[in-house]
Amino acid sequence: MKHLVFEELNATILQEAFALDESLSGTIYVLKDDYATGPLAVENNEATHQQRKDWWQEVFKGSPYENQIELVNDPETMQSIQAALEAEPEEELWIWMGQNSHDVSGYYWILPFLKPFAGRIMVLFMNNLPFMNEKGGIFYPTHLHEIQPKEFLKAKKLARPITGSEWEVDPDEWNRLLSQESMVRFLEGGKKLVPKSIDMFDAEIKKSVTAEWQKLAKITAGLLSKNKSGLTDTVIAWRLRLMAEHNEVEWQDEKNKGWKETQIRLAGANSEEKPV
């Protein structure tokens, strides 16, 4: 059995579930890009891949992930999956996805690679479904890694083949979305993605900046604890850097240690306080 997930954390939890149910065991593939954010094109080729890679390189500048961009090669991952399915005609690929824009965008992106194997591609979509947390309470996870490993044994019952109509309609829906040249894909519900401007989070981000110096890590942690709609630490830092270039906020990194020492405050603040 082959499995495909859209985050490393999901792969870790799924691997733990294998120990509880050997019938699930198999190779896990991970898509590492986040197709809910950044430039994409209807024509999926080497040139558009490089354009996307260059964009992420700018977003990652000065971040802890700056050197990880070279580790992301999803087209190569999909070629590996195609080769494995061709070599083992009886094997199925199970796509695990949560109800979030990251996973759903990834699902749409992989469909052209997998269409030749229609009938052997299963999907498990945790779409507004209840699960048990560690304390025995019911909750509705948006990401797979929020689910306990033992709960995956129940989740496997959700596996179903991608239908013929989905193979026809879903790629068209994705191409329609990409033709609008948006930089953010936002999940409204189910598999419905809508295009949004890249500055959609700017007001919320700027609201978290005060007249006093704050560590970038504190700002990102606060925003991520409240926002579950696809905002990431890299996007927060990137947008703040752009705000600093437009003199909306002040960005201070005297020690030149990247995110670790970066502090931010509103531009023109009257605070006498100096950065720590």
Provide structural commentary.
This protein has 276 residues and is of the alpha/beta class. The protein folds into two domains: 176 residues, Dna Topoisomerase Vi A Subunit, Chain: A, domain 2 (3-Layer(aba) Sandwich), CATH 3.40.1360; 65 residues, Arc Repressor Mutant, subunit A (Orthogonal Bundle). Helices cover 37% and strands 17% of the residues. It contains nine helices and twelve strands. Strand 3, helix 4 and strand 4 form a beta-alpha-beta unit. Helix 4 packs across helix 6. The radius of gyration is 21 Å and the shape is globular. The protein starts with a strand and ends in a 10-residue tail after the last strand. The mean pLDDT is 90.
